[in-house]
Amino acid sequence: MSKLLSIKYEDGKLSIINQLKLPLTTEYDDITGVQDGWDAIREMRVRGAPAIAIVAALSVAVELRKKTFEDVDAVVSFVGESLNHLRTSRPTAVNLFEAATRLEKLCAQLSSVADASVKSVVDGLLTEIEGMMAADIADNRAIGKHGAEAILSHVKEGENVHILTHCNTGSLATAQYGTALGVIRALHEQGKLTHAFCTETRPYNQGARLTAYELVVEEIPGTLVADSMVSFLMKEKGVSAVVVGADRVVANGDTANKIGTYQIAIAAKHHGVPFYVAAPLTSVDMSLKSGSEITIEERKGDELTHIFGQRLAAPGIGTWNPAFDVTPAELITGIITEKFVAVKDEGAEEFNMQQFIDKSADN
User: Fold this and answer.
1) Which of 29, 65, 94, 210, by CA, is between 20 and 30 Å from 348?
2) What's the gap between Cα 361 and its chain centre?
């Protein structure tokens, strides 16, 4: 298990590692309610699609534990208003929206019972929310196992296994263990990983600040490269596979992930390197048919022109700072989830995600 805990929750007290201060300072910020949760997500003190959903839900739990409600309607109103507010924090990662919708449905179900009380509704919600961290860790371990198996199926016996990843998808982006970095972790635990490469992930440097930090703490052999080195890295160092996370996977397999993912997928296609997406099923959005329907968050320009408050770019230059891009399904080898590894039908350029979801539901 990872040595890092990005989220701490016990007896209604929630705190998160302030990821803006990593790797130079490890500092936990207290989250005392829904607004604190919204601020932490918006400011990217917590980031990573699974972690965003968990912190959002737990911020509601913190207030549910300490507030006094007059009646069941007051609980329903508070939960609905809180979740709607949290949805506005960041628009691209679907996990937050999935968790909010699930909790709203549960709240409606609990409150509609004939003998529903404030206590029964609050207790039911707390049980669901407070179980999210354990469920996420179990899902991540399953993703790691399935991903390691998929990657090793392309590797000859005794061949070095070099994995490239982008952004941060480890313990800092989840409850613990990780998605794409969880695959790397699983390969390392099995003694199969030769080396991991992580991109710096401009402009916010999640790879340089966070993934490199996790690799060092976990003693996983790793090397940091600039985003612009990826094609040459594949040509010169023999990358076995690329594995990245996802903020949203849609019905045809198109995937929104951290900006820069798309160009890595193009390079991987050119060099014949398998390109995998690793994400829990909560990241799959079957309401959207293709990636063209995904809302892409655009962030403020100083994230591009400054690092740790220090200006790098010429004053007065314009900026364009999309936080994510969309990798088309045709560039993706497989989509690794906790239930299955989705692959395309022979000759197909897109995935049939519904088919795999239906099969997993039958098992």
Assistant:
1) 94
2) 23
Instruction: Report which of 233, 38, 317 is spatially closest to residue 222, judged by C-alpha positions.
Output: 233
**What is the distance between the alpha carbons of residues 42 and 19, in angstroms, rounded to a whole number?**
12
Residue 94: helix, strand or coil by DSSP? Answer: helix
* Residues 255 and 249: beta-carbon distance below 8 Å: yes
322: which DSSP letter?
A: B
CA 160, 165, 171, 177 dihedral sign is: negative
pTM: 0.92
- Quick check: is 30 catalytic? no
Residue 206 is encoded by which pair of tokens? 């999640």
- Quick one: 43 exposed, middle or buried, by C-beta within 10 A (0-12, 13-18, 19+)? middle
pLDDT digits (tens, 9 = 90+) for 87-138: 999 988 899 999 999 999 999 999 999 999 999 999 999 999 999 999 999 9
Active-site option among 227, 247, 254, 325: 247
Q: How far apart are CA 172 and CA 27, in angstroms?
A: 13
Q: Are strands 275-278 and 255-258 parallel, antiparallel or unpaired?
A: unpaired
Residues whose CB falls within 8 Å of the CB of residue 124, separated by 6 or more in sequence, listed in order:
106, 110
SS3 (DSSP) at 77 = helix
Cα 238 from Cα 228, distance rounded (Å): 17
